[in-house]
């Protein structure tokens, strides 16, 4: 069990760093798009690039129209920041002193609900404003599958909490 704690702690920190990176990307993009600081408009206003801070090196690129910026640029980056934040919380469950706790069940529940609901909801909302690429449906299916596995894991943890509580009553 000690190796599980070590691996989960490493993955927890990796997920936290990735979450931080995605949220910083969103913050830099919002700053650039709202203030034009670090923003480079190309080809007569058709495309944009968000530059690395204090440089002229392009960092993030996209089509320069509001629908694309909201639904295909900012929203996906934000949601992947949330994904890695929730994933980090799941990994955190595995290096706690007690494995089966209501805290663990809660974190797994948030993770499976986010993976089962948010990607499909995003496709639905986006389809009202723009045509959603069929390749993106693969990501929706993958997130749903991940959510189903997390649901099963949450059910196992919930049963583990119940058994652990019963065991604590006998001691």
DSSP strand content: 5-15%
Mean pLDDT: 91
Please count the beta strands (DSSP E, at least 2 residues each).
3
Instruction: Indicate how many domains the architecture comprises.
Output: 2
Instruction: List the uncertain runs.
Output: none
Structural class: mainly alpha
Give your account of this protein's structure.
This protein has helices at residues 2-35, 66-93, 102-129, 136-170; strands spanning 39-42, 47-51, 58-63. The protein is mainly alpha-helical and 171 residues long. It folds into 2 domains: 1-88, no CATH class; 96-171. A hairpin with a 6-residue loop joins strand 2 and strand 3. The protein starts with a helix and ends with a helix.
Write the SSE topology.
Blueprint: H1 2-35, E1 39-42, E2 47-51, E3 58-63, H2 66-93, H3 102-129, H4 136-170
Antiparallel strand pairs: 1-2, 2-3
Helix pairs in contact: 1-2, 2-3, 3-4
Protein name: DUF2975 domain-containing protein
Keywords: Membrane, Transmembrane, Transmembrane helix
Transmembrane segments: 12-33, 66-90, 110-130, 136-157
Summarize the structure.
With 171 residues, this protein is mainly alpha-helical. The chain has helices at residues 2-35, 66-93, 102-129, 136-170, and strands at 39-42, 47-51, 58-63. Helix 1 runs antiparallel to helix 2 (66-93), helix 2 (66-93) runs antiparallel to helix 3 and helix 3 (102-129) packs antiparallel against helix 4.
List keywords for this structure.
single chain, 171 residues, mainly alpha, 3-stranded antiparallel sheet, 3 strands, 73% helix, membrane, transmembrane, transmembrane helix, DUF2975 domain-containing protein
